[in-house]
Amino acid sequence: MVRINTKLRGSVFMTLLLSYLAVFLLPLTLGSILYTKTVSIMTDNANRANVAMLEQLRQVMDSRLKDVERMSQQIAFNPRLQLLMNNVDTSDSTDAYKFVEFVSEHMMRYQNVSGIINGYYVYLKDSDTVLLPTAKTTAEMLYQSLYKPAGSSFAEWRSKLVDGPRYRDYYAAAYETPNGKLDTITYVQTLPLGEQTEIRGALVILLDVDQIRSMLSKIESASQSSVFILDRQDRLIVGKNNESLPWEQIRHELQTRGVPYVYEDQDADRMLSYTESEQNGWKYVLVMPEHVYLERVYTLKNWMITLLLICLIGGGAAISFWMHRNYAPLHGLVRVLQKEKPPRKKQPSNEYEFIRETIQMTMHEERELRNILSRQTPVIQASFLSRFVRGHVDVTRMTEESLQFMDIRLISDWFAVVLIDIADFSRFSTDQSERQWALIRFIISNIGNDLIREREWGYSVELDQHRVALLVNFSQERFAEAELELDTIAVRLKQVIEERFQTYITLAIGEVHKGMDRIGQSYFEALSALDYKIYRGHSSIICYREIADADRHYYYPIETEIQLINSSKSGDVAGVDKLIGNLFHAHFNQRRITPELGRSLFTNMVSTLWKIMNPMDPLYREVFGEGFDPLKELSACPTVGEMQVKIRDWFLALCHYVNANRSSHGRQQAERITRYIEQHYDDEMLSLTTIAEHFGLTPPYLSTFFKKQTGMNLMDYLTRVRIDQAKKLMQDKKLTFTQIANKVGYANDIGFIRVFKKYEGTTPGKYRESL
User: Measured between alpha carbons, how far is residue 325 from residues 19, 92, 303, 414 in Å?
Assistant: First the structure.
């Protein structure tokens, strides 16, 4: 271990000693200077404290008054209230119920909006009606029984509400109530909002002055001062006006001299501090007697003298004590660092040099750690952007430092999200492993990133296996061209990916929104647009603005369903085909319904299919086979066109089945099918599908029909015909089994031997030997 040279101990010790001596002599030199500054400092501190308390009071009041004004706007803009203001026939029971309905559904919900609201009501001038949070009454009943303004007659009070336009009007008022006198701050808003001449009513909100006074009393007791509140016309709202200088006498002085303002009132010097609300123009004023804040100055002066004497008397002993006390931690720190750090070849000159070298070594280690952390920045950035795009980040907690740490830069508050869905890259690579998925996502992300930054700013982020998102950040100057820029980026990205990398992608573009908290909305808009790929296909560009006005209903009435059921049961192939074609044309060609409604329409048509099959059970097993699950098959269809083909085939299969069961020529049809098999059994392409296409039937229906008519599965019959012909050919010893297999419709002898053994119980070779 490296030990500090004991000879160097004196240099550090003497440095500390001289420092303490300088500190010891410094109070003697600066004491007088500090005291001269104390008065102004304490005055400023008192003023700052007063202004801080007033600011806190202002913020609380602004917040609560904002709730009141927000509540006022919500009630004023309520469409129900607009209708009630036009309704003057209160005798009509239907109209009277509308008043009660408005009270129960809309007025009651605002009872707990703010703690300072004592009550509120809506006065309708034409019907002389008052709507309370829990009841409907008349203006006279309200005046006589609930809120009677002190010193105002009924006519004066009612006229004051609607005699002229009022907007966010506050004034102090006292009311006589059944529970006694009620002091309030009354908020009046004439209705309709913004109307200057044809005033039809007023919204009145009564604010509880006692709660405001309790806040003022806390400040007054804390600072031994008086606090009062004035409105924008300098009228006293709350406070003791007799204890303060009238505002009219000093407000011009404040504008020129500034704050704090010291004046004399009632033979006593006072200091006035005030602040003003930008929201409503209210002024919050605090008046403090001079002796309150100067008393602290006098106390501080006495303490300073006392401390100076203590310093002079005990300075010598204190220097000696603190020298040893402060040097001991330094020495202990050096010893700890010597134990933790490896030995050094070069001995430091003193303790401070040793600590400096140790700190440098620690900082070097910290830089190394930061380098390691910086290599993880892309992973942290990708994780953050993935949550950011989806709207799962609390933007109120984001700071510039946190964004810089993740190497993220944003140039404005305008954002849009583009979703890229990877549909098919089989032509780029037949390998569908996770490694190839990661490669194609990497390619799309990099190309998308380059295209964005050629024109704007943004980031690409991988969301899941087959989806990539582009977060586009538009500059304020080019915001007007945002939609065109998004379209250009999408078209170029699709062109490059499909032409150069043989990959089909679907792009969905959300709307452009302002504010980081609206990014999630653009993402969900793009997600909604992506659903429309069932209409557009997997290689398309879909903008949310194109589908935002899509129809929100579909037309499939009971009459159409009954017509489809009757046509299917009667075997009307042309009628069923026309009905289904008209339904799909009306909903997906003439107009566009949302994907959710499209799936609902398909589900209803499947329900119609089951309604036809249930009374004819087990019809679906004969026509469609066991395990028939139409909803599962529809969900596997990627486009509307494929869904239409599925549904059409099912209904037409029912029609063919009904016609075949009802036709007297069913046996003749079966005979024609058997003759066709016997004539073409040597065709190796002959199958259930080719035979069904030849006769214009669906494969499921052909299989069911043939089995019902002959009692034998069609493919079993085809196999039996081929084996019987092969037995005849085996009599010719010159023919090989490969030649025989080709002559009876098999591509090679392996498949022929396997089938022969399955049906005959022996191999072709042993059978030939038995001949």
Answer: 14, 93, 26, 60
